[in-house]
Every structure is written in structure tokens, then in C-alpha cells.
Amino acid sequence: MERKASGPLGESVSPPAVAPGRRRLLTVVLGGILTAIAGVVGAPLAAFFALPALRLSERRWLEVGRLAEFPEGEIKKVLARPLTAQAWPYETPRVTVYVLNRGAGKFTVFNIHCTHVGCPVRWNPQAGRFFSPCHGGVFDRDGRVLAGPPPRPLDRYEYKVEKGVLYAGRAYKVTERLEFREWHHA
Ligand code: FES
Fold it and tell me: Are residues 79 and 153 in the same domain?
């Protein structure tokens, strides 16, 4: 509701009318100023929040090696290196992994830690088995548990191949559901 001001003698006084054209101009100018302020303040804020995420995704990938280093059908132990050298506290340690070249451009990158209590497993090519040195855990060449107390198959890393180089990403657990998909379709 429009409130009317009072004059010195108590009479009601209407505020000066603003021409519609001028009001529109004011609205446009104010909108422009607010947009400019949002841009000046918002851009650095967006960069502040987005850059760490970008760096994190870059750090996520470890260089495992050139594809030629992994003969088809063989399992090889490799020290995967972080893509960029990061200083503390972002330092990404080197990670030892086992790589199985399954052929046709498909790989399995195993986490070397036994899924029982984490002892590093050893691949024995003669036996065609991974052996845990701690409590008798045994895994087949696909990481499935054959013996001992491990509760699930060997964990794996997601991987990608770019320009002839194999990269390892995040580690994941192989659940029963994933097992089937990974072993039969990947
Ligand atoms: S840590 Fe591998 S069987 Fe216990």
C-alpha cells in the first residue's frame, strides 16, 4: 500500500512521480551494476572452490606404465607413479599394483593388499596364484579367494589407457555383483 507523506500543514503530499522510461533505465543500470559485482566476487570464489577439485581429479590418476610393458596374459608387479609431483600435504605416494593384461585392450589392476588384514600378496606365476604371507590366504589370477580367511576377492583400481599408457585411478572393492560383471564382461 502506498504511504502518503504529510506537508507542514498536515496536508497529504504525493512523492514525485518517476517517469516509466527513467525507471526502466534505472532498473537496467542497477541490474548491470549487480551483475558486474557478482562477476567480480563470484569468479574468484568459484575458482577457489573448483581448483582443488580439479587438482584432486588430476592427482587421482597414477601412471602405471606403457602398454608394451605388459605382455598379454601375464601378471606383472609395478610401482605406479603419481602424475604430478605434489608437495606436502598433497603428496601422492607411489603405489605398488599388480597388472593383468587380459588382452583386447582390457586390464585388471589389483590392489596388492590382502582383503583379510592387508598383508601384501605375492604373485606366483608357476602356481598361477596370489599368496598372502600372513594367514594362508590364496587368490586365483582374477583375484578370487581360493583359500584362507580373506572375506572377498582382491580389491582393484579403476584404470584408463591414454596414448599407449596405462593409468590407475581409485581403488574399489569387488562385491559379488561386481565380480560377475568384471569377470565376464570387462
Ligand atoms: S592378511 Fe592375507 S590371509 Fe590374513
Answer: yes
The values of phi and psi at residue 144, to 5°, are: -75, 145
Q: How far is the CA of 152 from the centre of ligand 1 (A)?
A: 11
DSSP letters for 160-178: EEETTEEEEEEEE---HHH
Is the peptide bond preceding residue 20 cis, with omega within 30 degrees of 0?
Answer: no
Dump pLDDT digits (tens) for 26-73. Answer: 777 777 777 666 666 555 555 555 544 445 455 578 999 999 999 999
The pTM is what? 0.65
CATH code for position 178 = 2.102.10.10
What percent of the chain stands above pLDDT 70?
A: 66
Number of structural domains (the chain) is 2
Q: Are residues 46 and 67 in the same domain?
A: no
Note whether 40 and 82 are same-domain residues.
no
| 66: nearest Cα among 179, 178, 162 | 162
For residue 42, report the phi and psi dihedrals to the nearest 5 degrees.
Answer: -75, -35
* Residue 5 maps to a domain: no
Taking the C-alpha atoms of residue 99 and residue 128, their distance in angstroms, rounded to an integer, is 14
Give just the sign of the alpha carbon dihedral 157, 102, 79, 160.
negative
Q: 169 in ligand 1 pocket by Cβ < 6 Å?
A: no
Ligand 1 centroid – CA 118 distance (Å): 6
